[in-house]
Amino acid sequence: MKKIKVGFGPKTTANSFTQSGIKVAKTLNDYEGFEAATFGETFEIEDLAQFDVLVFIKILPEYNVLKELKILGKKIIFDYHDAFLIPTAYETNLIKKILKSIYYFNLERAERKKYSLIDLCFVASKGAEQVAKTAGLKTKFLFRQIFNDWNEFHFKQHTEKSEGLVIGWTGVSLNIDQNAEIKTVLEKLCKKYNSTISYLTDVIKNDQDEEVFKYKLWSLETWEKDILEWDISFRWWLDSNHQRHKDSNKIISYMAAGIPVVCRPTNSDEEIIKNGETGFFANNICEFEEQLDNLIKNPKLRKYIGENAHKYVWQNYSLRKHVDEIKKTIEEIMSVE
Question: What count of other Cβ atoms lies within 10 Å of the Cβ of residue 92?
Answer without folding.
Answer: 9
